[in-house]
Amino acid sequence: MSTALPLGGAALLPGLLLAVTWAAVAADAVAAGRAAGRPVSWTVALGLPGREAVRLLVGQRRRTAAGDELLRGIGGAALLVAALMAAAVLPLGLRPVADLGPGLVWFNAMEVVAWAAVWLVGWGANSTVSLIGGYRFVAQGLAYELPHMFALITAAVGAQSLRVTDVVAAQQGLWFIVIMPVAFVAFLLSAAAMAFWGPFDAPVGRDVAGGAAAELSGVDRLVFSTGRWLLLVASSAMAVPLFLGGGHGPWLPAWAWVLVKTLAVLGVLIVLRHRVPTIRMERWTEFSWVVLVPATIAQALVVTLVVLGRGGI
Amino acid sequence: MDLRTALLRAAVARPHVLVVGGVGTDRLRARVEQEVARRRWPVATAPADTDVVVVVGRPGPELGAVIEDVWVGVPAPRARVQVVDEHEIVPGLDETVGTLGDLDAQRALAGRDGSRPTRAASPSVDEDDEQHEHSAHDDHGAEHGTEHGTEHHHHGGGTELPGGLAMADLAEDRDGLALDQLHVPLGPVLPEWPSGLVVDVALQGDVIQDARARFLDVEAGEAVERLPDAARALTSVARVLALAGWSGPAARTRGLRDRVLFGEGDTAHVADELDALRRRVHRSRVLPWVLGSRKSSRGAVLDALEEKFSSARAALGGGGEHRPTTTDLPALDARLVGAEFAAARLIVAAANPAPQPALAEPTSTEGAS
Amino acid sequence: MITIALFGALAVTAVVAGALVFRVDSMARATFLLLLSFLAVAGLVLMTGLHYLGLVIVLMMIIEMVVMAVFMIMYMMNPAGLMPMSMFHNTRGSAVVAATTFVALAGGALLVDWPVRGGRPAPDLTMALGESLMGGQMLTMMTLGVTLFATIVGTVVLATGRGRYDRLGDELDAPESDDRDRGGVGR
Prior knowledge:
The structure holds 3 protein chains of 3 kinds.
Chain A lengths: L7 H29 L5 H17 L10 H18 L4 E2 L2 E2 L6 H22 L3 H32 L4 H6 L6 H4 L1 H14 L23 H26 L10 H22 L5 H29 L4
Antiparallel strand pairs in A: 1-2
Chain B lengths: L1 H10 L5 E5 L4 H13 L13 E5 L4 H12 L6 E5 L5 H13 L1 H11 L11 H12 L10 H7 L15 E4 L5 E9 L10 E8 L2 E9 L13 H15 L3 H16 L4 H17 L2 H6 L7 H19 L11 H8 L4 H11 L11 H4 L3
Parallel strand pairs in B: 1-2, 2-3
Antiparallel strand pairs in B: 4-5, 5-6, 6-7
Chain C lengths: L1 H19 L6 H21 L3 H25 L15 H21 L13 H10 L3 H22 L4 H5 L19
Pfam families (chain C): Oxidored_q3 (PF00499)
Keywords (chain C): Cell membrane, Membrane, NAD, Quinone, Transmembrane, Transmembrane helix
Main location (chain C): membrane
């Protein structure tokens, strides 16, 4: 049984996440350029995250009349902090920064902070479009959360443990994506939805002028969008230990496999974003409750039967 | 000092641009958008996300007031440029880069109206304006007669409204519950929004309960320059696609429009690309799902999209057999009532209303003024 | 020492945040202060070593409070607290109830002899909890679960303005409902 990384890992984690985020932002810019028929070269794209960050750092912070600055600030910071904390149980290789017993519940609890965070940012600005964006995220949360939880539960049942390292260890032979494909798809979709990414970006959509983020400028916007990106990276990285065998794989060391697989998942989500129009919440909610929830429950049942058949528990 | 200047220059090398134009500036506006896209500068979503405000044409008094409010909400470093002629676009945008990177100029700008009070202890006109702009990025200062406008401009006289803001009203929602209702103007500074259009809406949650559309600075019956049919239809298609969250095809549509407007001679090629784009929209299974099935009320947007494609195609082919349908403002109002915000945005983009030429239906502007 | 300090901080946060719920005017602040109070309690549960339960409290309370914020703001006038208002009703009665409860509980804590721990905690508390819930307490949990579920379904059925017979006809044979805003499955 693997244990937690030494303390240095905790210091390393934000840096690693930011590096992957940097690459993801650049890849997104390239994909956007390609989709729009105005190609952006990789050299330009790789400079882009830095450029935007400096732009926002230099930018003036703006406040709105009678806004709730305190709640807005808490919301933005919470998004960033929650993404980092959620990543604490991610095995970088085979060992996470914190190898918690109920690691899956930890991840879920941290990721749910986004509900409060986005709503608070939308509420705090005292602006109509911003508030609509915040409420959209709550509606979206109600849609994605249950399939997401069932997907997590299915992986936990497969490994008979809530500990993320146990889930990875259980996939030494067979990756969970093979025996629980429905749960994997549900997880991937909810990963995009919780980071209001890709087809689920209605909370920050163009029709509401940036939605929850509409009134953010300067550092506030930097914190919010960094938090969103980190959440996307953390949640897609979580797909790796849960369904894609974690650090297991031939030839390469475990950390390299984790990195490669994480980038692959991120790549899928970035392609998805540029291929599919935004799915509005009322559509997604019904689809999620009528199709995804029963499908993920059935998936959990099937996996449970398989585990019982193998003589587990 | 050098470091700060260098940092500032690096920060503003790729500014986010907000293009604001009144009614009848669509052609020049398209030119500006084309140049902005050519420079790979992003288009800002809201004033808070803006570095450069490009004012297209000569705004009238109402739009002018709106632009002042938007400008108050743009965080420093910022720059503003007015473009009234195609030849001014390139030097104008170049100049903004200089202004943005000039520390002294930014200080001067920030000194004038950059100090922004947190919470309105004492209501002031500035804050009142600011709030309006924040609440929907748009106009107000110049509204007369609407309930909203008067409320907001008579604050401070004995009312205890914090920051001079009006509180929400109560009204029955569609299930008969008495819930908060807001009166906000939508437009004219919103992404993918028709130039110079303002819709004063009563919002409950994100459901529109009452809508009243009007154009800023347009006299009833006044003739206004409009884009050729093909470009107009493509603009509308691009807006619908962008609002549907399909930014890639939206940008391609916009590129096609620019070539229809400004690229001489290669219209045959444009028609081919238009067909390809149309096929792609047809092939998408998610788009109809998002926009609504044909039978339901929202299928209207899908039908309108198809109609715009046909209209653009007919105009490109030179055949005059397809007469584009135009939506007048009262019809738009009727369709907006009961729609959710997202649906309403799509309806407005698909309808793409324009002030009618003097001879056609004089009721269209009257009903909304 | 650190444990005691942490316990004190969490306990004080829980109580103070809970009290502040009634001091602020803004519904949003009240809701999230209540959440803060709950999160502090979750921290206390985590300190007892019940990691699973503590995390579940965090998870459920965040979702619950966000949903509650939606309703608080929907039904309260002046939800942002921009106008001064009071959330108190029947202050005297509630003061009496609160004081009595506090005295009873505090008295109990001080006067009754605390039990001595017998046995030791299971090596894996999460597993022990699961075995208890799915073993000895199975009947309780099943009853609870079904009751809660029935309550939810019953509430929704009673509250809904338009049921499936309104939407799809008495024979449920309409090909499409006549809803104004349609969901994503096409019924």
